[in-house]
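User: Can you help me understand a structure? I only have the sequence.
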Amino acid sequence: MGTAHPVAALSVSARTFTTETTFEMVMTMTTIDEQAAVLALTKATHDQPWFSTARVILDAGSALELLDGGYACRDEDDQAHAAAIADRVQTGDLSWGRDLIATMGAEGVHLVTVLDDAYPGNAIWAYDRQPFLWTRGRFQAGDHRAVAVVGEHDAGHATSAARALAELGVTLVAPLRTDLDAAVHQAALAAGGRTLAVLAGGITEPATLGEYASVAKQIADCGAIVSPFWPGTAPTDRTAALARIVTCGLADSLYVVDGTDGGLASGHVEEALRTGKYVFVSQRLQQAQPWVDRAGLRGGMTGVQDIDDLCQQAVNLVDMTPRTHTC
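Assistant: Let's start by predicting it. Here is the structure, written out as tokens:
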């Protein structure tokens, strides 16, 4: 049997390389176009919460097809919403979206949309999932084994809990607005763990990080900082409330160290229970704060005796929780 001519073999190899490279380029452009369309549709969302747009995009399976009118749904409200936002997208909005993605990429900021495989597993199943997330750092497949730790004053207890969970391979989730939040992330990193910091403002807005910019850099190196807002959005009480959706969405369960009625911690508890996430609270908090028992009347909350009890129950939960879609 003869052998192929060396030049012919080289030609075949070159054609194969060219075909594969072209395929990758097409796939990359398709992904960017889909991401740009998600941004454009979100920008066109005026009279509904953004999670309504995330829902119809995810249901359509393609933001570009939704823009082209290729969305059909038996839910009349969703059908009307999809048609309304598609109609509001202006000429040039897709180019604006592509330019924004490129600009953020040049600054080391990544975009993940509900259509991307990298969108975090816990969050994608929440009904109030956000259409997109900007990140410094990357999500990993194991980040579904995540517990959010929140509190208001007892940083010592919060860091002990974060450290113990991180040592068991659990990803930590927390805001990044207070000294306690920063301490939670630093404790997880010191234990060799991963941590996800949810920002209450735009990822490139200096006021979002403030005094915690150096902590954010450490987090991005060994986890991710995450923002569900337009990059230049200034943090406000309203954006902080919206950020709770993402904090609870990224986590499989929530641990509340301490907190007063109407405070930061109770807001996270309300969001977690409303979206079906399990809540652990310290028995000391349960005994000291009547709001905890009131919140727990709907179920989905357990008081833990100590950090060892928390770790045992939380790890059991993250390892057995099925991924179920809540619409």
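Now, to help you interpret it: The two ends are 61 Å apart (CA to CA). Confidence is low (pLDDT under 50) at residues 1-27. Let me know which part you'd like to focus on.
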